[in-house]
């Protein structure tokens, strides 16, 4: 069967079908993005992309039955992104590589079976900036050192490849990397970092989901702006500050999530740190460690804290604070930073919401998540300072009545309440207020909240 696509869409996706062949002149004109995914494609005619020769920029082949690059790529003059994954056999055709080389900027290869890389194949892709390799042994990239090295590669992703250490050849092959992603390998020892000739331009390092328990050797890196060491085996918080000292004036993003830390490390000296992720650890001592005043986003969710660390009150640049799924029992007397825009404290053990306190008695909070707490009581003036709040989630709490505190929220447009509420004529004030809330969910007396409030005026006597 022949499929003729003469529509004028910019993007086209073939996902999960039985198309075995794409013939010449079948595809639409001026396509920019084509995805072939999870189907039995075995053949692409030599001029299948002819109508998009100058416009096609992104091309993805995922889980097809193709065994080599199609000659149809020879027609493309603007291809910038090529992804090829889950292929049974792949033999690189150097003629085709040389043809797409002048425009290709990103090449992504994943789960290739018996890949055959010709010598110096990266020379054929002189504009390539990003190389992503998933599930391929590093030694298969080239049978000999690249000559000259691929200095045009700036971003290298090399994951799921069973690396046990960072190979020196990686920086020999790619001497000018700015970003290196070695996540999901089997790296446990970083001690060879001091001997590696690390790119002086390296600013982002991703080492998540390895077997690392000590990041001390990171001391030999400087100028790092982003560091991800999540999903490892880091339990000792005391060595972390030492490892980060050389990057105290450069590091802006640090991910220590999904480890086994029991305390917050001392990070006050990190003067440029903007985002810190510590979720999914075993932190129980809220008085431990210290945090830099430069923080904008802080994630301490899924830990074991029973109180909020007091020094968070002093984070005068903080915009987002995530404290969900700890064991926090009370937020009485805690002063949140006035700069805070988003507060997630869901899934804790809070029963009472007091009048929320903010520094300088000013709140810029727009989003607050309280869902999943056993909240029974909300003070009438709890939200009196929240003049900018637009999103409030009180679902899965133990509330049984509409809290009068809601009436102070004049800019609220998203409200989520539990399905266990009871409404009466005492709630008449809500019948006009709630109409300004665009998105609302919850039930009163087993009936949709909006419907129940609409019925109240007809059920309640005029005063």
Low-confidence stretches: 1-8
| CATH architecture annotation name of the domain at 329-463 | Alpha-Beta Horseshoe
Determine the fraction of residues in helical runs and give it as a percent range: under 10%
The CATH C-level name of the domain at 329-463 is: Alpha Beta
**Strand runs, count:** 29
Short structural description:
With 463 residues, the chain is mostly beta strands. Helix content is 7%, strand content 20%.
Describe what you observe in this structure.
The protein is mainly beta. Among the domains are: 1-128, Leucine-rich repeat, LRR (right-handed beta-alpha superhelix) (Alpha-Beta Horseshoe), CATH 3.80.10; 329-463, Ribonuclease Inhibitor (Leucine-rich repeat, LRR (right-handed beta-alpha superhelix)). The protein is built from 5 helices and 29 strands. The protein has helices at residues 94-100, 168-173, 240-244, 430-433, 449-459; strands at residues 11-15, 21-22, 33-37, 43-44, 58-62, 81-85, 90-91, 106-110, 115-116, 130-134, 155-159, 179-181, 204-206, 226-228, 253-255, 275-277, 297-299, 320-322, 335-336, 342-344, 352-353, 357-358, 367-369, 377-378, 391-393, 414-416, 439-441, 443-444, 447-448. Strand 14 (226-228), helix 3 and strand 15 (253-255) form a beta-alpha-beta unit. The N and C termini lie far apart (75 Å).
